[in-house]
Amino acid sequence: MKSKLVVIGNGMAGMRCVEELLKLMPDKYDITVFGSEPYGNYNRIMLSPVLSGEKTIEQIMINDLAWYEENNITLKVGAHKEVVAVDRRNRMVATADGEKVPYDRVLLATGSLPFIIPLPGHGLEGVIAFRDINDVDIMLASAKHHTHAVVIGGGLLGLEAANGLMKQGMNVTVVHNLDVLMNRQLDEPAAKMLQASLQERGLKFKMAAASKEILGDQHGRVSGITFEDGSELPADLLVMAVGIRPNIVLAKKVGLQCDKGVLVNDTMQTFDPRIYAVGECVQHRGDIFGLVAPLFEQAKVCANHLAEYGIANYESSVVSTKLKVTGIDLFSAGDFSGGKNSEEIIFQDAERGVYKKVVLQDNKIKGAVLYGDTMDGAWYFQMMKDGTDVSQFRERLLFGQAHLGDSGTQGASAVANLPDNAEICGCNGVCKSDIVSAIAAQQLFTLDDVRDATKASASCGSCTGLVEQLIADSLGGDFNQSKQRKSICRCCEHSHDEIRSAISEQQLKSFPQVSAALKFSSEDGCHICRPAINYYLLAQWPGEYQDDTRSRFINERAHANIQKDNTYSVVPRMWGGVTTPAELRAIAAAAEKYNVPTVKVTGGQRIDLLGVKKEDLPKMWKDLNDAGMVSGHAYGKSLRTVKTCVGAEHCRFGTQDSMAMGIAIEKMTWGSWTPAKVKIAVSGCPRNCAEATIKDLGVVAVDSGWELYVGGNGGMKVVVSEFLTKVASGAEVMEYTAAFMQMYREQGHHNERSAPWIERVGLKYIKQELVENAPQRQALCERFHASQAFSQDDPWAQRASEGVEVSDFIPLKVIV
Amino acid sequence: MSNWIEVGSLNDIPRLGSRIVQTKNGDIAIFRTAKDSVFALRDQCPHKQGALSQGIVHGEQVTCPLHNWVISLQDGEAQGRDTGCTKTYEVKLQGETILLAL
User: Fold this and answer.
1) Rg for chain B (alpha carbons), in Å?
2) What is the rounded CA–CA span in Å between residue A782 and residue A776?
3) Do A289 and A296 touch, CB atoms closer than 8 A?
4) Do the chains contact at B19 and A550, CB–CB below 8 Å?
5) Contact (CB, 8 A) for A367 and A335
6) SS (H, E, C) A489-510
7) What are residue A570's DSSP bridge partners?
8) Distance in Å from the first CA to the final CA of chain B
9) Residue of A nearest to B20 (CA)
10) Of the candidates A794, A791, A816, A790, the residue with the CA atom closest to the CA atom of residue A804
11) Would an 8 Å CB–CB cutoff place B92 in contact with chain A?
């Protein structure tokens, strides 16, 4: 028999948790949901656009009544269905109209109550909060028949309410008890700019005001408000938006431990182990919550425990906010007030209406306030959460990410200014308007949601930064950016680094061991985690771990690149881009023998034979092997090519023999598996004809030795490599190369090229380990060679000669 | 009536792998899961006709090698928010022998 889950509260946090639960265990519970508002589940944070007329109620519904039906959820809504008692001994909840429902687990998601200041007259008609659809209905109705509105509270919600009422044609005054608007999110200069801009739009302000009494007319409706300074304002509608407090009425009544909110532990469990709680009603590690991102994280954790997976922990969230007033760009995150040990970097241009402040501590971003130009908000926020060391580009920090040059994977640029038809995801042909409308129409909150719905950034991932920026722009502070991208895939909650350390610490030596130890939700993982973990195991246990071909992408299994028509391309290795007439003859012969339709010179200085049938691959390899050639690994997360220019042997400018150096490096590094592809180049002089400065490792000859550069890549977001060090001898070039390769092999995340890896750990750290710490460098170098001892078998020779897995290349049966 | 044809033995297909059966109406991919169940799908992703037999098999799903669509082995339906369906064929094990219905 199914267990019974009773959900008290039909709001965003509770329903998100139910959604997450349905994803994990759709059949575990009979679910009954109680809600006091007579609707399905709607997106409360979008009430402001509804008030301002930019959206309709239908547009902000997340789950309509049909959804509850489809998922076999019993929904009981309305005031009479409010849960008024929980009999914890007999495990039964009771509603106001006396209905009793038994439970095995309860999810408490009662949300919060708006705080109403107990001024004389606060009970008059027309005095409301800004909390639910009913409040919005009252406001919209008042706007039709009345003129004057007063909003008490100059915070986020108050300003959104005031803006909406003004849009509906009312004459609105915002009353705030301090001199600074949005004092929880803004510092004084930004707040003043915001106030000036809102005043220009027609809002009036009464700052540093102490309210005294709300006045009423003969019909019992609000008519005005008086202040301690003796002044008075007319008001036909008075909205109190002075904050919320957790709704713990029921929790207290039934004896759950409460402080400001219902106390929960890291698994979202209350003091009664059968009762869980999420959302604005909870208090976790002393914090209470008012923004949606942490609520969704809590929902996910709670669902994990309700499904009895028992592996997720909620640890607290970093949040950012954005004011949803069209035409005003404002972003705030973290601790922006600074402190004794922090530093502030400020940029202010009053004429343009731009203000930016970033607060740093120990070279890391602690908080940020942006006004007028919030384009880089998501970027600062990401660095803040990742704890990125910004000392490298501190002097350019305030000019934004575009000024730094795009960084490969995190690249965000002027996305807000792009036209609707601008293509964001080049792989899947998704343009800006597709993403923006999907976010609105399908109620998407996370990067994963958007990837699923639109495919944007679901392929190569290089537009991830742009997509995140679009989500952040569309949702403001509601963007749930945090956890999703940290876990390796949906099979588990663990990050790349956590999985790697588990592999080494717990001596895990196979995928089944990893998936069991880390409690994967699916035994044989998926196409994302299996290849990643196969690589980590290979890198951790060289010579010991048996490569699992079934966890490899087809290209690495077939040692050729699959093409759009399911044929393959074959690229033999050409050491340092240098070949011989005999090799060229062998390639030509193979091309003719197997009817290769296209022969092309690649960017990596070798020859690509395109359009080969899979069953011909082993025969073709044998022919090329017989002529002395090996696989070029043009398909792998591995060393691809070492590109060279002619160098001192022939070139009149050459200072060193770059071809010989390139060949030596390629002979040393070929066959190594790496987190993502690795390209190396060697130039014979600073003219750099081998384009060494956009390679993962670039070697540039100078008269007195060799300069080494790391972390470059070409592609969609070009990254110029950074100078690592200069060495005098060829032997040192080899040592640094091996050590750099090994460090990347040990620390890079699967599918993360060297540029984002270096951005993540910092060039300074790379220099410390490789340049300043010679014993460390030598140890890395030794580990690289030890691992290479097991890697430098030509896969073509193995397949072609021993007939290994020949079955992979021929049909099981031919039926004619 | 289905016409059951013997196409090979279970051990001819690696676990979490696939082999194809060539027919005059196109290739059929036979999949073997970690738990030794077998499934048969037309060897064409509904998206851009990628060869599903070349994909990574996980659970009772396969990921297309071209653009990472995930296709259910049970009913050929694209998973997640992708929409599309690949033809399925009846397949069964008789001992170790794989029988395909055509």
Assistant:
1) 13
2) 10
3) no
4) no
5) yes
6) CCCCCCCHHHHHHHHHHCCCCC
7) A609
8) 10
9) A811
10) A794
11) no
Taking the Cβ of residue B64 and every Cβ of chain A, the question of whether any pair is shorter than 8 Å is answered with no
- Residues of chain A contacting residue B57, judged by C-beta atoms under 8 Å apart: 524, 550
The pLDDT of residue A775 is above 50: yes
Count A/B contacts: CB-CB distance under 8 Å: 96
Kindly state the tokens that stand for A682: 């060697």
Residue given tokens 């010991």 in the structure block: A544
Predicted pLDDT at A794: 83
pLDDT of residue A316: 76
Q: Give me the numbers of helices (H) and strands (E) for chain A, helices first please.
A: 25, 39
What residues of A are in contact with residue B65 (Cβ under 8 Å)? Answer: 553-555, 562
If you count them, how many residues does chain B have?
Answer: 102
pLDDT of A404 strictly over 60: no
Confidence of residue A530 (pLDDT cuts 50, 70, 90): very high
**How many distinct helices (H) and strands (E) make up chain B?**
0, 10
Instruction: Yes or no: say if A314 and A145 are a contact pair by the CB < 8 Å rule.
Output: no
Query: Is A813–B7 a contact, with Cβ atoms under 8 angstroms apart?
Result: yes
Contact list, B81 vs chain A (CB under 8 Å): 452-453
- Closest residue in A to B66 (Cα–Cα): A564
Note the pLDDT of residue A405.
Answer: 45
Distance CA A626, CA A612 (A): 19
- The ipTM of this complex is 0.91
The domain total for chain B is 1
- Nearest residue of A to residue B51 by CA position? A566
To the nearest whole Å, the CA of A307 is away from the closest chain B CA by: 20
- Specify the higher pLDDT residue, A688 or A53: A688
Q: How far is A446 from A486, CA to CA, in rounded Å?
A: 12
Three-state SS for A21? helix
Residues of B in contact with A530 (CB under 8 A): 56, 58
- Chain A hits for B33, CB-CB cut-off 8 Å, are 524
**Range with lowest mean pLDDT among A194-208, A407-421, A613-627, B81-95:** A407-421
The pairing of strands A148-152 and B17-23 is: unpaired
Q: pLDDT category, A460, cuts 50, 70, 90?
A: low
Q: Do residue B102 and residue A453 have CB atoms under 8 angstroms apart?
A: no
3-class DSSP state of A340: coil
Closest C-alpha among A249, A311, A319, A314 to residue A289: A319
Considering chain A, what percentage of its residues have pLDDT values greater than 90? 59
* Strands A364-371 and A561-562, sheet pairing: unpaired
Nearest CA in chain B to A451: B81
CATH of the domain at B23: 2.102.10.10
- Tell if the CB–CB gap between A811 and B12 is shorter than 8 Å: no
Report the phi/psi class of residue A372: left, alpha or beta, with left for phi > 0 and alpha for psi in -120 to 50.
left
First to last CA, chain A: 51
Domains in chain A, please, with CATH? 3-112+246-306 (3.50.50.60), 127-242 (3.50.50.60), 496-552 (no CATH), 555-626 (3.90.480.10), 644-791 (3.30.413.10)
Strand, helix or coil for residue A398: helix
A527 touches chain B (CB under 8 A): yes
Count CA atoms within 13 Å of residue A715 on its CB side: 23
pTM of the full predicted structure? 0.59
Question: Which structural domain range is residue B93 located in?
Answer: 4-101
Instruction: Give φ, ψ of A726 to 5 degrees.
Output: -120, 135
Q: Pick the more confident residue, A767 or A183.
A: A767
Segment A589-604, tens digit of pLDDT = 999 999 999 999 999 9
CB environment A698-735: b (16+ within 10 A), e (fewer):
bbbbeeebbbbbbbbbeeebebebbebeebeebebbbb
